[in-house]
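Example with several molecule types.
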Amino acid sequence: MPPSQVVAIIAVALSLLLGPSNALAAEANVAVAANFAETAREIAAKFEARTGHKAVLSYGSSGQFFTQIANGAPFDVFLSADAELPQRLVADGLAVAGMRFTYATGRLVLWSATPGLVDGKGAVLRSNRFEKLAIADHRTAPYGLAAIETMRMLGLHDRLGPKLVRGTSITQAFQFVQTGAAELGFVALSQVVGEKGGSRWLVPAAHHAPIDQQAVLTRRGADNVAAKAFLQYLKGPEAKAIIRKYAYEVR
Amino acid sequence: MGSIIWLTVKLAGVTTLILLVLATPLGWWLARGKAWWKEAVGALVSLPIVLPPTVLGFYLLIALGPNSPLMAPLQAMGIRTLAFTFEGLVIGSVIYSLPFAVQPIRNAFQALGQENLDSAATLGASPLDAFLRIALPLAAPGYFVAAILSFAHTVGEFGVVLMIGGAIPGKTEVLSVEIYKLVEALEWREAHMLAALLVGFGFVVVLALLLLERRIARRAAADD
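Resulting C-alpha cells for the full complex:
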C-alpha cells in the first residue's frame, strides 16, 4: 500500500472516530444541580438532535460546582439549584453578566412513602403521628431553606425542631423518606412526580420565597457556540415543555 | 462548634472502647485459630477498607431503618429506627473501623512466641491466666496502635455519618460532615479552621504511630 493511501485511510478513520463531520458542531460542558439531572438529560438529548452541538452534563451539588468553577473547573454553563450562586459568579467576574436567567422554579412538597399519612392540607405536621421529619440542610440547599420558611409561616418551626433530620442535599432528604428512615419530609415536587404511592401535600407557593433555579454562562464558556446555543434552547418552548413535565414551573 | 468537636470525640472514644473489647477475641482467634474458614472471616472484617463508606452507609440506612428485620426486636421495645441516633452512628463506626482495630491486635497475637505460653502452662497457669498475664502485656503495643488508628479513623469518618446521621445537633452532627456542609454553604473561613484542626490532629496521630513503631523496633532489637 503506498504511503499516501495509508494516510488517507488514517484520516478517514480519525474523522469517523471524532464524530460527525459537521464543521459547526461544538461541545459544551454543563454543570447541573442534582435535582435537575433527569430533566437536563432529556433536554440535552433533544438539544443535540436539534442543533448537532453536544452538551456534556455533570451532576452535583450547586455549592460544590460554585467552588469548582471559582477554582477554574472547565464548565461552560452552570444550571444552579438557586439564584444566589449564579448571581455571585457574575459579581465575582466568573460568569458573563446578562446571560443569567431563571430556567425553572421549584415547588416544595411534604411527602411520605406511607399512604394516608400526609393529608391534603399538611395538618399531619401538627399531629404526633411521626417521629422524624426530613429536610435538606437550609445552609446548602434552597429546598431546605423553603422548608424552614414554610414551618415558620405555619408557626411550627420551634415545635418541629426536635423532629428534624437534615440531609446535605434534597436528594438525600428524599432518600431518608423513601427508605422510611424518616416517616415524612419536605422534598422537591420534581422528585415525587413519578412516585405513584405514598401521600403528599403540595405546599402553597406563597408559604416560602420562590425557589428560583438560575442558569448562567461562565467566563470560560463566553465564546463557546454550543454553550450559548444550549442556553438559548433552554429558554425555548421545547425545553420549557420538558421542564414543566418534570413538575417545575416556568415563567 | 464546641458541641460538634465534643460529639466527634465522644463518638470516636466510645467506638474505640467497643472495638478494643470486640477485637480481642476476634484478633486472638484470627491469629491462633485453626478453622479452615478463618480467612473468610478475616476478609469480611477487612471489607470496610475497600468498600466506599457510602456503600456501608446505604446498607446501614436500610438495616437500621423501620422496615428492616434486624430492627424487629427493637421495635417491640418502642424503638422505631436507629438511623439518626448516636447509637446508630456508634454501630456504623464500629463496623467501619473494625479492620483498623482487629489487624494490629491480630498481628500482635501472631507475633507471640508459643514458648512463652507453653512455659506458662507448664508452670500450672490456666489458659485465661496465661492470656491475661503473658499474652496481653506482650500485645500491649498492638493495642496502642489499634486504639490510635480506630480513634483517628472514626474522627475522619464521613460517608457513613453522612448517610445515616441526619445532622441532628448534639446527637449526630460531627466534624467531617460539618466541614463538608460549610464548604457547600461557601463558609470557607469556618471550613478552613476546622479543616486545619483535622490536619493538625492527623499529623499528631501519624507521628505518634511512627514514634511508637520505632520504640517497638528498638525494644525488639534489645531483646535479641
